[in-house]
Amino acid sequence: MPNSPIAPGTPYEGKAKILTPTATPGIWQIFFKDDATAFNAQKRGEIRGKGEINCTISSHLFQFLEHQGIPTHFVRQTAPNCMEVHALTMFALEVVVRNRAAGSLCRETGLPLGLELAPPLVEFYYKNDALGDPLLTPDRLRLLNLATPQQVQTLTEMAQQINGHLCRFFAECGILLIDFKLEFGWNDHGQVILADEISPDTCRLWLAGESDPVQRVVDKDRFRHDLGGVESAYQLVLERVLRR
After folding, report:
1. What residues have CB less than 8 Å from 14, skipping those under 6 apart?
2. How many angstroms separate the CA atoms of 166 and 18, rounded?
3. Residues sharing a CB contact under 8 Å with residue 100, sequence separation 6 or more, in sequence order
């Protein structure tokens, strides 16, 4: 959801989704695109069927989390690649939860790929494409005034709770949740709400029991690193999520 007000009927287009206010006040429609980007949009492409898959997975997981007591912006899925959501004021933050070392954590620290992190690591990144979405220290987070101390605590606790629920959910699907990105906003009452999406675009997912470092990957890393089989990996995740 955009941070600033948008006139009714004016769409807001991001890299992976298009958001449009509906005729119902406070309700927006999200259209999920097949467009794919990586490395802060330096790499671009298309993953056929990604919009429908990510919308359906996100819809399913939002409803699952709602049943666990996590408030989300989800209202209903209106088409294979569209959902309606509650309008929120968004934090300019990405909250990343890491259960195992991968991606930038390995590149920046030298930790071995797949190292289990106990307890899981919760990190905050500044959602700013021009700056490359930098990792924020607590002091920088406070300096930028992107969230109050109480909101930071709430975001951290919610991320930890969501991680626990999703780890168990994916484990029942035969999938390891390596790490993932969350975005949050708040409503008119100041309540912090989970937003955006939860999908192979925003989660790093490995097949449980698969030792081959390429074959186990069933997320956007297949696109990032030209591993091939991107569409089939996304489809596999969808099938397992819906079967669970």
Report:
1. none
2. 26
3. 114, 115, 116, 117, 176, 178, 179
> What are the structural domains of the chain?
12-86 (3.30.200.20), 89-233 (3.30.470.20)
CA 221 to chain centre: 14
pTM above 0.85, yes or no: yes
Is residue 176 within 8 A of residue 217, CB to CB? The reply is no
176-195 b/e with 16+ CB inside 10 Å = b?
Answer: bbbbbbbbbbbeeeeebbbb
192, 169, 157: which is closest to 71 by C-alpha? 192
Q: pLDDT (tens digit, 0 to 9) for every residue of the chain, 244 residues total? A: 444 433 444 578 889 999 999 999 999 999 999 999 888 778 899 999 999 999 999 999 999 999 999 999 999 999 999 999 999 999 999 999 999 999 999 999 999 999 999 999 999 999 998 999 999 999 999 999 999 999 999 999 999 999 999 999 999 999 999 999 999 999 999 999 999 999 999 999 999 999 999 999 999 999 999 999 999 999 999 999 999 8
What does the DSSP 8-state code read for residue 159?
Answer: H
d(CA 234, CA 228): 12
3-state SS track over 112-143: CCCCEEEEEEEEEEECCHHHCCCECCHHHHHH
Contacts for 185 with CB less than 8 Å, ≥ 6 apart: 1, 73, 88, 89, 90, 91, 192, 193, 195
